[in-house]
Amino acid sequence: MKILVLGSGIVGVTAAHFLARDGHEVHVIDRQALAANETSFSNAGMIAPGHAYPWSSPRAPKILWRSLFRGDTSLKLKPSLDPYMWMWCLKFLAQCTAEKAAANARNKVRLCAYSQESLQFLLDETPIDYHRVTGGAVYLYRDPALYEAGVKATKILTDNGVVLQPKTVDEAARIEPALESVKSQLAGVIYSPRDESGDCHLFANKLAQHCTEKRGVTFHWSTAIERIEASGDRVERVVTSKGAMTADAYVLATGSYAPIHARSIGISLPIYPVKGYAVTVPVDGRNRAPRLSGVDEQNLVAWSRLGDRLRLTATAEISGYGTDHKPGDFAHMLKTAQGLFPDGADFARPSYWAGLRPMTPEGTPILGPARYRNLWLNTGQGHMGWTMSFGSARIVADMIAGRKPAIDLTGLTYANA
Ligand SMILES: Cc1cc2nc3c(=O)[nH]c(=O)nc-3n(C[C@H](O)[C@H](O)[C@H](O)COP(=O)(O)OP(=O)(O)OC[C@H]3O[C@@H](n4cnc5c(N)ncnc54)[C@H](O)[C@@H]3O)c2cc1C
């Protein structure tokens, strides 16, 4: 078939790869001039089934409410008049029960694990150098009570097969020597031996190049999707800034913009952007930089080592589609990282960025067919889209080929679409 993939973030590029591998003629459209130039540009780089906790937890409503009055919460709501924000928030709140959180964690872990396996499958066939770091991730706790609660909370993931190991600070410093000088600040560490990290932007661009050169995929760069047109039970064409494009099948992978594109053909997708901030600093050969990725669970700052750079990310802000930022937005992240790894990077040379996670209320993506016979959804990977992209791509390619996907899809398809 001729298949048009809409969007070349990490989700669109991995989809193009697995579709081309099946022998389809694949075209990819993106308004950017290269792959992964929006949300997939500067994420925390973590491939982390060990951190697949659902955001819609019983604690989340209180955190959102507090965020209206103070600025230091992990999840922030900045109310606007956008009705889609409110509809999404209501759906998110409906997921915040213990039962729903457990079900969402189960679905998420299943996809994360399959996706990590699919990444290895892809790399075995197509070696790509993208500053991959295997060997685990470390989740740091500064307060003994929070550490104890953190260890207890691992049950929701360990019950679903994730390996998470509580470690003393001495043990943790043997696993990640960069923690040696801050042992006195820590109460305990949860080590996730199977987690890994890498540069999502670099990976997506190298895979796009491979797809072009070896699998005949055509990328239509700097081509903006204006609308999708459908009639009867088929999508007829995609109207772009460079004219109409047609195909036998279409895969919608435009991240946070997917609900806007889907709306043009009468499909309502429960996806809303959740803004996050990232700052990248050069390591410049310093030997006290961390090797493993991790999260400071008290300050909610994630980091990963991307070759000779250190990436820091934080914040989940429900504030609409803006990606504006100012240096003050990154002060907390830089202070936290400087405290943890004082001689780990040149913190005086930051590159700032903000992006929009395409979040569903459940935290799991929407995969599969939707209303029209030739339309497939692959979107809504939210705060773990780098981790979940490989499995999502493979599942959608399996569905298009009429093969049974390798994992149970409960909670991953969207019946109302
Ligand atoms: C701060 C932060 C930290 C994160 N950390 C992690 C992490 O450590 N691990 C992890 O697994 N995930 C992480 N994520 C999540 C992950 O980055 C996202 O889930 C993922 O990048 C989403 O990929 P995507 O391809 O769906 O979206 P995008 O990368 O946004 O791709 C969508 C594409 O669609 C294109 N597009 C949109 N509209 C149009 C249009 N009208 N015309 C043409 N093209 C269009 C865009 O140009 C873009 O290229 C993080 C996210 C943030 C913001």
What is the element layout, followed by pairings?
Elements: E1 2-6, H1 10-21, E2 25-29, E3 46-47, H2 60-67, E4 75-77, H3 83-94, H4 98-125, E5 137-141, H5 144-153, H6 155-158, E6 165-167, H7 169-175, E7 188-192, E8 196-197, H8 200-215, E9 218-220, E10 225-231, E11 234-240, E12 243-245, E13 249-252, H9 258-263, E14 272-282, E15 293-296, E16 301-306, E17 309-318, H10 331-340, E18 351-359, E19 366-370, E20 372-379, H11 385-401
Parallel strand pairs: 1-2, 1-13, 2-9, 4-17, 5-15, 13-20
Antiparallel strand pairs: 3-8, 5-7, 6-7, 10-11, 11-12, 14-17, 14-18, 15-16, 16-17, 19-20
Helix pairs in contact: 1-8, 1-11, 4-11
Flavin-adenine dinucleotide is lined by residues 7-12, 29-32, 36-40, 43-46, 224-225, 253-255, 257, 276, 278, 302, 313, 355, 357-358, 379, 381-387.
Show unreliable segments. none
CATH class of the domain at 50-55 and 65-82 and 133-196 and 272-359: Alpha Beta
Q: Provide the CATH architecture of the domain at 50-55 and 65-82 and 133-196 and 272-359.
A: 2-Layer Sandwich
CATH homologous superfamily name of the domain at 50-55 and 65-82 and 133-196 and 272-359?
D-Amino Acid Oxidase, subunit A, domain 2
Helix content: 25-40%
At the third CATH level, what is the topology name of the domain at 50-55 and 65-82 and 133-196 and 272-359? D-Amino Acid Oxidase, Chain A, domain 2
Proportion in β-strands: 25-35%
Number of strand segments? 20
Report the mean per-residue pLDDT as an integer: 96
What hetero molecules are in the model? flavin-adenine dinucleotide
What is the rounded distance between the termini? 23 Å
Instruction: Report the radius of gyration as a whole number of Å.
Output: 21 Å
**Biggest sheet, in brief?**
9 strands, mixed
The structure class reads alpha/beta
Quick one: overall form? globular
How many helical elements?
11
